[in-house]
Every structure is written in C-alpha cells, then in structure tokens.
Amino acid sequence: MKNTQNQKTGKFSATAQRMLDLREAIFSEWEKRVRANIEHARDLPHPLLINTFPAYFSRLVEAVSPGFPRKIATDTNTIAIEHGGERARLTNYDPRAVIAEFQHLRWAILDVLQKHGVHFSADEFYIFNASIDAAICESATAYMLTQSAFREQFVAALTHDLRNPLHSIITAAELILRTDDPEKIRELAGKVIENGHRIDRMTKDMLDCALFQNGERLTLNLSCFDILELAREVCEQAAINSQSRIELNGEAAEGWWDRDAIKRAIENLIGNAVKYGAHDEPVKVHISPQHERVTISVHNKGDPVDPEQMESIFQVFRRTEAAKSGNRQGWGIGLPYVRSVAESHGGSVVVDSCVARGTTFIIDLPVDARPYQGTPTLNSLTK
C-alpha cells in the first residue's frame, strides 16, 4: 500500500497515513477478536477469513482523506457486497456473524489507533462510522440475498427430485388398475412401496437438517449394536441398488448409537461416493474402533472435492460445482444430514480429498453416545 499512486500524489491525510502504517497491527487485532468471538471464524484458513477486508480497508483510508474523492468506503464499489456473498457461499456464517466481524473491525481500528496516539477529527469519525455502517448493511443484505438464492435452488432441486419417485408411484398405481395378473400387481406394488420409502427418507433428511440448522440436536433412539454388521447390511443393499462394487473391511465395533440415523448417514456417504466416484473403481468402506471411538470411512476414486468447496459441502442448500454442472441429481441435504448425525452423537465428520488419494469421508464417533446427549452442537453455539 505504501507504493500506491495515491500516496505518491499526497492525497492521504495524516490520519489516513497513520492508518496505513498501522494496517498490519489492526488486522492482527481484528483477526484475534473475530476468532475469539465468532464461532464459525475460529477454524477458517487465514486467506478465507481475511477475504475482502484489505481492499475495504484501503477504501476506508481513502474515505477519511479529505483530498480523495470518495465520500465513504463503500462509495462506487461492490467490495462489501462481494464480501457478504462470499460469506454465504464459502462459510457457515449467519447474518449476525457477518455484522459482528465489521463491528470487530470498527473497534480494532479505534483501539489500535488510540494505543498509538492517533485520534479522528469529528469529520473523520463521522465518515469512518458511516463507512462501517454502510459496509454492514451491504454485506448483510448480500449475504441474505445469496442465502435466498440457495434456498430457491434447493426448492427447485427438491421439487424435481421428489417428482421422480412420485411419478413412479402414480405410474405403478395406474398400471395396477389395468391388470389382473397377480405377479404383475405384486411387482408394481413393490415399486410403489420402494418409491414411497424413498420419498419418506428424503423428507426425514430434510426435516432433520432443518432442525439441526436451528441449533437443535437430533432426537436419537440409542441402542447397543455392532456398527460393522450395520455397515455390511447397508453395503449389500447399496451394491444391489447401484450395481456398483462396494468393499467393506474393518473390525467389529459394538457401541451405543441411533441405528436408523447411523444407517442413513452411511447410506448417504456411499450414495455420494457412487454418484461422484470413478465408475470403474470400487467404493471402499472401513470400520475402525480405537481409543473408545469408532471411525466409519467411505472412500472413492475420481475427481476430488474442490478445496474451495470443502468449507461449504456440509451446509444445507449447498451443492458442489461438480454437482451443479453435471448430470447428477441431488438437492444438497445428504452431507449436512451426515454432519447433523455425527455431531448429535458427540462426534464429527471430515473430508480428505485430492487427486492422488481420492476422496474419503470419515465419521468419527464415541463408542458410547449416551453421555453426549446434553452437549451443544456447532450450530447451537451461534444461536
């Protein structure tokens, strides 16, 4: 910033120049406060966390300089708007987090400047606050508009995907009315039941994810069972349904979990691996108990998850660019549901993906989930 043309032409005021000199100290203080006070910011990589703030800061410096033709920092640019959209697309932020990080920027700037004996004039202080307030408004609005767009896409995808099993049910029912063949009736009735169960699973996933996104833990029906046997059951059924090669290995792992929820989570991960994996490579499922925990890993070869997408694939309404641009159907609820199941059991889910290793999703659970039913979920911490 020190070599910009603006500085060469001497347009920056003395206060603005001191802001530039203290820029790194300001951002260091801001990052410390944001990571300490905004839950979803704590584990964000620095480049993703800092986002458009350096560009915004440069405009803020210009705005407080009387000789520079900029009324406030957001004047004649879309930096704050882009920031809000990126927070919606790439993070787990909610609107309050978007607002809070600008509030932390306000106080980080004021505190660092005061510490170094720098004080705004009345006019500078007015412009400074007007700039921060405008950025808050524009970023929060952009965030909510982006979220609204995600929801519209979600509803459109949901409507499309629900129509397929509904159409199958209606077609089978109409054919039943036209035949007296018992075998044909039995076959068609099976299709009605199969597609009815499919709609029921989709609806359950959607309702559970909506509950989890509101900060509420899933209601679990805990029982003691062997998760390896459950995984074997899911793998066998998935191999039949998808006509894919699915390999299961690992050790027996008996513990206390919700059988139906874990089953649906494994089904989602295998379905995801079949959908996005290389068709000539097997999907590999592995069960590993250790240190009073158990991991369920599902691995596939094929195109890796884009690193920029890893922050958002566990969020409701999100689908990766590969899913949007390809012919694969889906409505962005499977992986968020997996996360809700894992965290409601006191565990977690992670993804490891690159060209060389392929893609692996790992559910990590305590062997006994009973003691963790009162602990908060990640989403509840920000409510």
Overall shape: it is elongated
Number of helix segments? Answer: 13
Question: What helical percentage do the residues reach?
Answer: 55-70%
What Rg, in angstroms, do the CA atoms define?
A: 26 Å
Alpha-beta classification? alpha+beta
Highest CATH level, the class of the largest domain: Alpha Beta
How much strand content do the residues show?
5-15%
InterPro entries: HATPase_C_sf, HATPase_dom, His_kinase_dom, HisK_dim/P_dom, HisK_dim/P_sf, Sensor_HK_Regulatory, Sig_transdc_His_kin-like_C
Catalytic activity: ATP + protein L-histidine = ADP + protein N-phospho-L-histidine
Protein name: histidine kinase
GO molecular function: kinase activity
Describe it:
- It is an enzyme of class 2 (transferase).
- This protein has 383 residues and is α+β, with helices and mostly antiparallel strands.
- It has 13 helices and 7 strands.
- Strands 2-4-5-7-6 form a 5-stranded mixed beta sheet. The chain has a two-stranded antiparallel ribbon with strand order 1-3.
- The radius of gyration is 26 Å and the shape is elongated.
- The protein starts with a helix and ends in a 17-residue tail after the last strand.
Throw out a few tags for this protein.
single chain, 383 residues, alpha+beta, Helix Hairpins, Heat Shock Protein 90, 3 domains, five-stranded mixed sheet, two-stranded antiparallel ribbon, 13 helices, 56% helix, elongated, disordered N terminus, disordered C terminus
